[in-house]
Amino acid sequence: KRGPRAALQKGARGVYRRAVAESEARKTIRVVGAVIVRDGRYLIPQRRPNAVLPLLWEFPGGRVEDDEDDVDALRREITERLGVSVEVSQPWICFRTHPYEHYTVDLYLYECALIEGELERRAVHDFRWVTSEEFDDYPFTPVDEASMTKLLGES
């Protein structure tokens, strides 16, 4: 016969097992972003209304696919989203990780320069050139906000 203590221990083991399974199931997504500055202004695109984290602002870039390195992913993402080519400086200048509800994002930021093409809204809702003083006027994704804070030396 089991008493209340045994039931509590069994319940605690179940909670622990679920927590371990959720932790192991949590996916980490490697994301690259570009810090592109022109005349003292940073390029920031706005996410589409139907995207995860809709209409928030971010540094341009995206997910690194399994068969890509960071530089190839950054070039591809910026071309797909904004229609321009970039030169990517090595090594990355900032790293931030941020846990979201169902996954964790590891964001690597690289300094980049536009080298070809005119900016287009291909896979973004909008884009702007803003000064660092204007960043507070735009709601950023949490991981981009953390990166921005580190880049500006505020944390």
Fraction in beta strands? 25-35%
Distance between the termini: 56 Å
Q: Compute the gyration radius: what is it?
A: 20 Å
Low-confidence stretches: none
Report the total helices: 3
Task: Decide which structural class fits the backbone.
Answer: alpha+beta
Number of strand elements = 7
How would you spell out the order of helices and strands?
A: HEEEHEEEEH
Shape by Cα distribution: globular
Q: Compute the average pLDDT.
A: 88
Structural description of this entry:
Strand 1 and strand 2 form a beta hairpin. The longest helix has 22 residues. The chain has three helices and seven strands. The model has no long low-confidence stretch (mean pLDDT 88). Strands 1, 2, 3, 4, 5, 6 and 7 form a seven-stranded mixed β-sheet that branches. With 155 residues, it is an alpha+beta fold. The chain is globular and about 40 Å long.
How is the topology of this model organized?
Blueprint: H1 4-25, E1 27-38, E2 41-46, E3 61-63, H2 70-82, E4 85-88, E5 94-99, E6 103-116, E7 126-130, H3 142-151
Parallel strand pairs: 1-6
Antiparallel strand pairs: 1-2, 1-3, 2-7, 4-6, 5-6
Output the keywords.
alpha+beta; 29% helix; 7 strands; 155 residues; 7-stranded mixed beta sheet; globular
